[in-house]
Design goal:
Elements (H helix, E strand, L loop, with lengths): L2 H20 L5 H12 L4 H5 L3 H17 L6 E5 L3 H4 L6 E8 L4 H11 L4 E13 L5 E6 L8 E10 L5 H23 L1 H14 L9 H18 E14 L2 E6 L5 E2 L9 E3 L5 H8 L4 E9 L7 E10 L5 E11 L1 H5 L6 H13 L7 H11 L3 H6 L2 H14 L6 E6 L5 E9 L5 H14 L7 E5 L5 E9 L9 H12 L2 H13 L1 H11 L5 H6 L2 H12 L7 E6 L9 E9 L5 H9 L3 E12 L5 E11 L7 H16 L10 H5 L4 H16 L6 H10 L1 H15 L7 H14 L6 H16 E4 L14 E5 L14 E6 L3 E7 L4 E7 L6 H15 L6 E9 L6 H21 L3 E3 L2 E3 L15 E4 L7 H11 L8 E2 L7 H4 L1 H15 L10 E6 L5 H6 L6 E7 L3 E4 L5 H12 L19 E4 L5 E2 L2 H7 L5 E2 L1 H9 L3 E6 L6 E2 L5 H4 L9 E2 L5 E6 L7 H9 ...
Parallel strand pairs: 25-26, 25-29, 29-30, 31-32, 31-37, 37-40, 38-39
Antiparallel strand pairs: 1-2, 2-5, 3-4, 3-5, 6-7, 6-8, 6-12, 7-9, 10-11, 11-12, 13-14, 14-16, 15-16, 17-18, 18-20, 19-20, 21-22, 22-23, 23-24, 24-26, 27-28, 32-33, 33-34, 35-36
Helix pairs in contact: 1-2, 1-4, 2-4, 6-7, 8-9, 12-15, 13-15, 16-17, 18-19, 18-21, 25-27, 26-27, 27-28, 27-29, 31-32, 34-42, 34-44, 42-44, 44-48, 44-52, 44-56, 45-47, 48-52, 53-56, 54-56, 54-57, 55-56, 57-58, 57-59, 57-60, 57-61, 58-59, 60-61, 60-63, 61-63, 62-63, 63-66, 65-66
């Protein structure tokens, strides 16, 4: 027993229990038995959802009705049981029927409910034997099978129907049931009598007179006897008389002959034969004995079929028809199911039909016709005449199973219906054809009633449907052939029509091929909606699909919608369906509203499945002139969107709304993307809505763009301005201020655009898939600072990128960014850093960045897409860059240029693109770009930075300097270190091998933390070296046996790390455990000599900064403030290890560091050397002077020398910062003026560079503090950057003196072999300017040029020339080298002080040359003029001095010597101040024709004798409060020098020969001018008695000295 059956049993048992407990009558057992009998046939499904109380109530209700109803009449109750009134309830209306048991009850009740359109949810019926006692109460009951005595047999019904609340409906249901039960009752009661009548007629028939055909009598008797054998359900009988009446005949029922259901109609009603059709009239008078037909009435008893009518005619003696015996009823199932040969009448009829054919028995044709008749509808076979059957049988036979359709029509003898037999090929038969056939027949016979049908299928290829058309005009005219033609057309399938259309469109051969392929390809839903002629177009589209082009489409306006805004779009896709969610947003972004969508699969005979998506849409703009052009434009745009060649967004609305091509809409889109990158606050969707509202303005903007940049459009300012004015005029109609701002910004951006590749074609002549614009940012309002000189923005659906340049000659890396929304902001920050980093090299800073917009998730595919995006970006840059061919500028093809020649474009590898340089160089070669593989440094043919270790070595120069300046030689002394990165990295790995004395205590990367509390420098060095030489490594590869006690390697993914005692001691903590991030913070803050950053990430910030300000979320948890660092030195091998404010905070608290752009400049410098060398050599290769192989070999052979050149630059740059910092507080005012000068020229933005405000600087000055090294690093870089730009002028670059800078910029092999070729280097001027600018700032400090300009008003070129003279005369280069050679031999402070003295002297000398040089002499001549005097003075200066001053000078020399300075160098440095007079002395010697020795001795001894040297010391020591006082002091020094020179010359005039004794002539001169000298001596006395002096005193004293000189000279 199943669980459900068990539950059912329990439910019925519960009902029984309720009956036993609640029914108090003595016959409770009968009630229980009744309930069980009633529910015994109830299905388990019906029982499952019921409860026992309702079942109990229903059974009890029916029992009470049964017990009360004691007669044989039918009892019918239709009611809605309610708990309050009936004691039980149901959601349905209940029908209770109690009727005398008789046949046909159940079927007839069901039919009655169906006619009333009533759904029965449950119908229970039980026939019962009932016995009652004397009081009429039921005393016994049982089922019909039980042998039990009974008073009556009843059938009870319990029916649940749809809930009915309308009383009239309930009454109607009851009335219909009563009527049906009456019919059943009368039919059943008279059934025996009717059967007896049938038998009696059959027996009497042979004896009747007037029947002419005895054979027919025999067949009829056999037929009637067959009927009497329960082959016909007899329902009624009546006898009719046919009698003549006034030229007519009438058929009248004979009184009291009606039996069964005939009793229910009027016996006396007569019918005239003239009312019948002619055929019926003839039939009525014919001698045919039997009448076999159907009535027009549906039976209400047994089954819902039309009632069969069997009439047996009666004849008079002459054979005239005088009446009939009519039986009505229904043939039983045997009539339909058994063979026709078993039915007497049919057997003979079939034989007669066969005899009428010409076919011999046993032949194929005979058997075929027999089969047709045997399977013919039985009612038709019975009712049709032989001739009619013959026509049908032969007609069907002649079809010979061909693909054709036929119709055979037979009119009922009495005109009550038309019987139509329709034959069609079975594969063509379907519901649609059947319905169409019904309509055709209804129309043909003018019928308004539903045409009935019965379909028959056999093994034949023909399907036969029997249609019965009722409600017709019996005299209707019809043509069978016309009906047949209509049916043939209806049976002509969609496929047939498609075949015809294909033949017409494609020709017979191709048409048949396509028909075979697509005959069964289309689903019924498609065929119902699409005409075959339209399907031909779809097939053409489907045939155009391929693996390369998987999508085709058709955008059209149906003729039915010609004057509306309704359009349709069909999409054709290969292999797989297009998901609605994929395509709907695309369509809607074109401004179309989808109102209907239908997908169709198309499966061809070869198994290929393609798809059609059909869309009904509404256009917002129905004012389109030429829809064919619109359609072509839209389809191309949509196809490009689908293939990701056009972006899917709201700008596509412009294709329809503004009549723009998809690519033209991309102009508007590209500028919108650029707007977002430059910080415009409007979202893209808002910009889209602007142009959705004003599409005509978008049209004008594209027109403006076209006017400016199309090669076919001749650009004129006038024409351009006219379109601009048209746009401005349209703005009067733009109400929204934001929309106005957006449109004006578009005009500005187009105006700021200098070049575009928009009109270029690719090698196949197709528009490029990307757009690039060259923009001048300064022409766009409110651009974020700093402003690059130029930038190129590249846009495509796959990639967006920007390349920012600080000038025409610029270089920097390209970064694969992941900041899609603001990658330009990232690049702008990087280019700012690159600008200051590039000060040591020829190009200024540039930086590029791109984002990939369609990255896949698969790793390999991810990187492949990245490379493809990089290629597009590179092409976008080169597309609009000028080329150089044989020294001539070649503009790019189809690019209208609105700027000057601009051929220099150099890129490099950066984050994410380290391996991409070869790709970039490949594209450069493909474009024939003049730089060749010098275009992108870092490629496989070039200098391998990691192998050279150049970046780390450059940064290590800073580290060595920091250590040296705190008295440590890190190359010979062990020091502790914490480092960021791992040995697999370039900067980290190389850096940690640059000293064998590194004691690496801790290091970390993104995976591990390495801790070695007490490392051994020697063994750990070797282990790091081993790891670095591995192909790849991590800290896990470190030999743990070499780690000191308590150390280890820990995972950063660990929840916590237990600290050993050694780690606790190292960190200075008492904590037992730390999380990885806590441990890393502690490591960064531990006491250590050096932190080396060789990784990625920002770990140091300022206290005033938030983590969000830093912009490196990955390291927020471990980042520390600069003031929290306890390291002595921070080396920035990697970029962005600290924020600039973090650096400043660290150094302000005693730490030592520069900046990343100072420390790791080595990589940039190396790349630039590589580029410049390649440019030189590539020119030689192109001229045939070198082969490519020779070039590469030569390039590699110079690796070590290039490295030395780079490191020299790194050394010098950090050195100049140290020299500048030495006098930090004293020189702060000069540095402030330098900052102001840069700001005035728009070269510097303090906020961007994090330089202090004037208020902060004033506070530092008051506190005696100067700028920190990070701040000085910025200013040094800006000084070089600005000066480099200023020096690219002919006065400098064409000066032969500076050619040596060009030559020395290249390694020795190139200097020796290709010296002359260097003059043709495209960057000759820039190289000279760069080298000279670096030399000047390194030698003289950051503010030298600005200071000289302010003090003298001289132009930069003049200052530089004079500097070169001063440097050469004072042999600054040699002195600098000599001092640098003393690294780690003498105290660093001594070195720095000596360098400062050199700088000061050359600065003074430069000023002298600016004031007094002979401009008729060039640099070489000037040097040649002063060199002898300098050499003489250097060797003999002490001999020219008075003993006191000579002794003082020797004391200074000895002090330097004690510090370890070699004597020659010590002498040179100590003499600097005195040697400054060499220019004056040389000129005096030349003018007076006196030997330099005599002039020098006179000069120095006169100065000492007059107290001029003491007075000079007073001027020098005079403090200054502001810039003007500083200028005054400088002028006083110059004036004093000049007066000493003049007086010396006056004194020398007293000596007419070279042999004059200097002491004598001075003494003689002073005695001679004693009176004049007393005034000067008196003034000196006043100075000496006063502790402080003011500037007025100096001014008066110098005036007195000038008058003395003048008067003495005049006296002569």
């Amino acid at each position: 027993m199943t669980q459900q059956e068990g539950q059912t049993s329990v439910l019925l048992e519960n009902v029984s229990s309720l009956i036993r407990s609640k029914v108090k009558a003595t016959n409770v057992s009968l009630v229980e038995k009744f309930a069980k009998t009633l529910y015994s046939n109830m299905s388990t499904e019906d029982l499952a959802s019921r409860n026992d109380s309702d079942l109990y109530g229903a059974a009890l209700s029916l029992w009470n009705s049964l017990e009360k109803h004691t007669d044989d009449t039918a009892l019918i109750r239709v009611f809605n049981p309610e708990l309050a009134n009936n004691g039980w309830q149901s959601s349905h209306t209940i029908v209770e029927i109690i009727a005398k048991d008789m046949p046909f009850l159940v079927d007839s009740v069901r039919m009655a409910l169906a006619r009333e359109n009533i759904v029965s949810h449950l119908l229970l019926h039980s026939p019962l034997k009932i016995k009652r006692d004397k009081d009429g109460l039921i005393s016994a009951l049982s089922g019909m099978k039980t042998e039990q005595e009974s008073d009556s047999n009843k059938t009870v019904f319990f029916i649940e129907i749809d809930r009915q609340s309308d009383k009239s409906v309930i009454a109607s249901i009851k009335k219909e049931l009563e009527s049906v039960l009456a019919d059943v009752s009368v039919a059943v009661e008279d059934w025996l009598a009717i059967k007896d009548k049938l038998v009696s007629i059959s027996k009497a028939l042979p004896k009747r007179k007037g029947i002419k055909n005895k054979t027919e009598v025999k067949e009829t008797v056999e037929f009637l006897d067959w009927l009497a054998k329960d082959n016909f359900t007899l329902m009624g009988y009546r006898q009719y008389d046919l009698s003549p009446i006034k030229g007519d005949y009438q058929l009248t029922g004979v009184a009291d002959t009606s039996l069964g259901m005939m009793k229910l109609s009027d016996e006396t009603k007569s019918r005239r034969l003239s009312d019948l059709p002619e055929v019926a009239r003839k039939e009525a008078h014919s001698d045919n004995l039997l009448i076999l037909t159907k009535t027009n009435s549906l039976s209400r008893v047994h089954r819902p079929a039309y009632i069969d009518y069997i009439g047996i005619k009666r004849f008079d003696d002459e054979g005239n028809v005088i009446g009939e015996d009519r039986f009505i009823g229904l043939f039983s199932s045997s009539f339909y199911n058994n063979s026709a040969a078993d039915v007497p009448v049919l057997k003979s009829k079939i034989k007669r039909v066969l005899d009428m054919t010409d076919f011999a028995p046993g032949t194929h044709a005979y058997k075929a016709v027999l089969n047709i008749l045997e399977t013919y509808p039985r009612d038709e076979l019975l009712q049709a005449r032989e001739k009619e059957l013959l026509e049908v049988a032969l007609g069907v036979h002649h079809m010979q199973e061909r693909d054709m359709s036929r119709v055979f029509v037979r009119q009922d003898t009495y005109g009550r219906f038309f019987s139509c037999m329709v034959y069609v090929p079975r594969e063509r038969y379907n519901t649609a054809l059947r319905r169409e056939t019904q309509n055709i027949l209804a129309n043909a016979f003018d019928s308004n009633e539903q045409v009935e049908f019965t379909t028959f299928f056999s093994e034949s290829m023909l399907a036969r449907t029997h249609y019965t058309v009722r409600g017709c005009d019996q005299n209707v005219e019809y043509t069978v052939k016309q009906i047949e033609r209509n049916l043939i057309e209806a049976a002509r399938t969609w496929e047939d029509k498609l075949h015809s259309a294909l033949l017409e469109r494609a020709g017979e051969s191709r048409g048949n091929e396509l028909a075979r392929k697509y005959s069964k390809a289309f689903a019924s839903a498609y065929r119902e909606q699409v005409l075959p002629s339209a399907a031909v177009v779809d097939i053409e589209k489907l045939e155009s699909l391929s693996d390369e082009n998987k999508l085709a489409m058709l955008f059209y306006r149906p003729q039915e919608s010609a004057n509306t805004n309704q359009v349709r779009l069909s999409l054709y896709h290969k292999n797989e369906p297009i998901h609605l969610s994929d395509v709907m947003p695309i369509i809607e972004n074109f401004g179309l509203r989808v109102i209907g969508e239908t997908p169709y699969s198309v499966k061809t005979e070869d198994g290929q499945v393609n798809w059609i998506m059909d869309f009904s849409m509404l256009m917002s703009n129905d004012d389109l002139d030429d829809f064919s052009k619109v359609s072509e434009r839209f389809q191309l745009a949509l196809l490009n969107v689908w293939n990701n060649k056009l972006e899917d967004d709201g700008f596509n609305k412009l294709v329809l709304a503004a009549s723009l091509k998809g690519r033209e809409a991309s102009i508007i889109r590209a500028y919108a993307k650029y707007m977002r990158q430059i910080g415009v606050t409007f979202s893209q969707s808002y910009i889209e809505s602007t142009f959705e509202n004003y599409p005509h303005i978008a049209q004008l903007l594209v027109k403006l763009f076209d006017k400016k940049f199309s090669p076919k459009s001749k650009f004129t300012e006038k024409g351009y301005e006219k379109i601009v004015n048209d746009i401005i005029a349209e703005l009067d109609n733009v109400a929204n201020l934001d929309d106005d701002r957006i449109i004006r910004l578009y005009v500005d951006m187009i105006g700021a655009t200098l070049r575009t590749n928009f009109y270029q074609k690719d090698k196949d002549g197709i528009n490029k898939s990307y757009i690039s614009f060259k923009v001048q940012p300064s022409l766009i309002p409110e651009m974020p600072l700093p402003l690059p000189a130029f930038e190129i923005f590249v846009y495509s659906p796959r990639v967006e990128g920007v390349h920012l340049r600080g000038g025409k000659v610029a270089r920097g890396g390209l970064r694969w960014s992941d900041r899609r929304e603001d990658f330009r902001t990232e690049v702008l920050g990087l280019v700012k850093a690159q600008q200051v980093k590039n000060t040591v090299i020829v190009p200024v800073g540039s930086k590029g960045g791109f984002v990939c917009k369609q990255l896949p998730t698969d790793r390999e595919a991810f990187f492949k897409e990245g490379q493809e995006c990089y290629k597009l970006f590179i092409r976008g840059l080169l597309d609009i860059t000028d080329n150089i061919h044989h020294g001539e500028i070649v503009p790019p093809v189809d690019v209208v240029r609105h700027d000057e020649d601009d051929p220099y474009l150099v890129v490099a590898a950066d984050k994410g693109t380290a391996t991409f340089s070869d790709i970039a160089n490949g594209i450069s070669e493909e474009y024939g770009f003049w730089l060749g593989d010098a275009f992108a440094s870092g490629g496989s043919i070039g200098y391998d930075h990691k192998a050279m270790g150049i970046t780390a070595k450059g940064a290590w120069e800073s580290v060595k300097r920091h250590f040296r300046e705190i008295g440590i030689d890190c190359q010979t002394t062990d020091f502790t270190c914490v480092a960021i990165g791992d040995m697999a990295g370039d900067v980290f790995g190389n850096g940690m091998l640059l000293s064998k004395h590194i004691r690496l205590q801790a290091a970390f990367n993104h995976m591990h933390i390495f801790i070695d509390p007490n490392p051994d420098a020697a063994s750990s060095y070797l282990e790091r070296k081993r790891m670095f030489e591995l192909p790849r490594s991590s800290w896990e590869d470190y030999n743990k046996d070499l780690i000191s006690q308590g150390g280890g390697i820990f995972s950063r993914s660990a929840k916590s790390i237990t600290l050993t005692p050694e780690i606790k001691k190292m960190l200075g903590t008492k904590k037992a455990t730390m999380t990885p991030n806590e441990l890393l913070r502690a490591i960064l803050m531990m006491q250590v000599d050096l932190i080396w950053n060789g990784g990625i990430g920002t770990y140091i910030k300022a206290k005033s900064e938030t983590h969000a300000d830093v912009g490196d979320r990955a390291n927020d948890a471990l980042r520390v403030n600069g003031e929290e660092l306890n390291a002595k030195i921070f080396g920035e091998g990697g970029n962005l290890g600290a924020t600039q404010l973090g650096r400043i905070e660290f150094t302000a608290n005693g730490g030592r560091m520069n900046t990343d752009f100072i420390d790791n400049v080595g990589g940039v410098a190396c790349s630039d050397n590589e580029v410049n060398i390649k440019i030189l050599l590539n020119g030689l290769v192109s001229e045939g002077d070198l082969t490519k192989k020779q070039r590469d070999e030569l390039l590699y052979s110079m690796t070590d020398e290039v490295s030395e050149m780079v490191l020299k630059d790194c050394y010098r740059q950090t050195h100049t910062i140290s020299v500048t910092q030495l006098k930090g507080p004293q020189t702060l005012k000069e540095q402030i003026r330098f900052i102001h000068a840069l700001e005035k020229d728009g070269k510097l933005n303090r906020d961007i560079e994090f330089l202090p405000s004037d208020e902060e600087l004033a506070e530092r000055q008051a506190a005696g503090k100067g700028l920190t090294r990070p701040e000085l690093s910025v200013l040094v870089s800006y000084a070089k950057m600005v000066l480099k730009e200023q020096l690219v002028i002919e006065e400098i670059t064409d000066n032969p003196y500076y050619r040596s800078l060009l030559v020395d910029a290249f390694p020795a092999p190139l200097r020796e072999r290709f010296n002359n070729a260097m003059d043709n280097h495209p960057l000759r001027g820039e190289i000279i300017a760069t080298k000279l600018a670096n030399q000047i700032v390194n030698d003289m400090g950051l503010n030298f040029i600005v200071r000289m300009s302010e003090e003298t008003g001289a132009p930069v070129s003049e200052i530089v020339l004079c500097y070169s003279m001063a440097k050469a005369v004072f042999e600054l280069g040699n002195a600098w080298q000599d001092i640098s050679a003393l690294d780690n031999q003498i105290p660093s402070i001594v070195q720095t002080e000596m360098l400062y003295q050199l700088r000061r002297t050359v600065r003074r000398a430069t000023r002298w040359f600016l004031r007094h040089r002979n401009k008729a002499l060039n640099i070489e001549q000037t040097i040649e003029f002063f060199a002898p005097a300098f050499n003489d003075l250097s060797e003999n200066i002490t001999s020219y001095m008075v003993d006191e001053e000579a002794e003082k000078l020797n004391t200074e020399i000895n002090l330097l010597a004690k510090e370890g300075v070699p004597s020659a160098l010590a002498k040179r440095i100590a003499q600097l101040s005195s040697l400054f007079s060499v220019m004056d002395l040389a000129q005096v010697a030349d003018a007076s024709s006196k030997p330099i020795s005599q002039v020098s001795e006179t000069y120095f001894k006169l100065g000492a004798g007059m107290g001029l040297h003491w007075f000079l010391d007073q001027i020098t020591k005079q403090p200054v409060a502001n810039h003007w006082q500083a200028l005054a002091r400088a002028s006083y020094r110059e004036e004093l020098d000049w007066q000493q020179r003049s007086l010396s010359q006056v004194v020398l005039n007293n000596c007419e020969t070279a042999g004059c004794d200097v002491d004598t002539i001075i003494e003689s001169w002073m005695n001679e001018h004693q009176v004049l000298l007393e005034r000067w001596q008196h003034m000196l006395a006043e100075f000496k008695t006063s502790q402080t002096h003011d500037f007025a005193k100096f001014s008066v004293a110098l005036r007195e000295l000038m008058l003395l000189s003048h008067n003495c000279d005049t006296a002569q």
